[in-house]
Amino acid sequence: MTIIFVVIAILVLAGAAMVITGRFAPSVGIENTGDYTLESAGFDVTLRGYRMDEVDQRIAELEGKITELKASTQR
């Protein structure tokens, strides 16, 4: 009986080690096809993430497109 508990403990520890090291990550329903990279985002990467002025500019551009699309569908 003790051997069974030891085997279970080893399997649990091995599974935890695989999750921590990234060799095994449970599926959360989002598939990563690898098509989206940092370069395709179009932002310069800085020490703490993206440059906020570039992000703000992109958001303003997208808001403009949304407004334009809403106006064209209401006609």
Order of helices and strands: HHEEH
Let me know the number of strands: 2
The biggest beta sheet is recorded as: 2 strands, antiparallel
Distance between the termini: 75 Å
* Overall residue-averaged pLDDT value: 78
Number of domains: 1
The secondary structure category is: mainly alpha
> Strand arrangement, largest sheet?
1-2
Helix content: 55-70%
Shape: elongated
SS field, number of helical segments: 3
Q: Show unreliable segments.
A: none
Q: Estimate the strand proportion.
A: 5-15%
Radius of gyration: 23 Å
Outline of the structure:
This protein is mostly helical. It has one domain (2-25, 43-73). The chain has helices spanning 2-21, 38-41, 52-73; strands at 45-46, 49-50.
Descriptive account of the structure:
- This protein is mainly alpha-helical and 75 residues long.
- The chain has one domain (2-25, 43-73).
- Helices cover 61% and strands 5% of the residues.
- The protein is built from three helices and two strands.
- The chain has a two-stranded antiparallel sheet with strand order 1-2.
- A hairpin with a 2-residue loop joins strand 1 and strand 2.
- The N and C termini lie far apart (75 Å).
